[in-house]
Fold:
Amino acid sequence: MHNLLNSLVLAQNGDGGIGIGMILFWVLIFGVFYFILIRPQQKQQKEHRKLLSELKAGDHIVTIGGFKGVITQVKEDGFKVRFAPEVELEIIKSAVGRRQGDEPKKKK
Structure:
């Protein structure tokens, strides 16, 4: 606890306010978080929304649970998907993980 108080005292400048170095430190931390975590996640969500809007009957998909199937009907809030010759289920759009064949290229 004593070390924490000493750190806070040293971080302040002579008039009792927070130093410009401390402000720059927090701006830098926020910038790193934005470019490493937030921005890539937003880009991935945008690509997934685009994929969902482009899916049509006949597309082969993989669900987030790992099931492969073929879309037989597009609905407003989901899809009817055939997983086997006599097995057709209705799934919600957010359950679609990717279109089969759109796998990312593996690096060697």
Q: What stands out?
A: The chain has two domains: 1-54, 56-102. The radius of gyration is 25 Å. The chain has a mean pLDDT of 85. DSSP finds two helices and five strands in the chain.
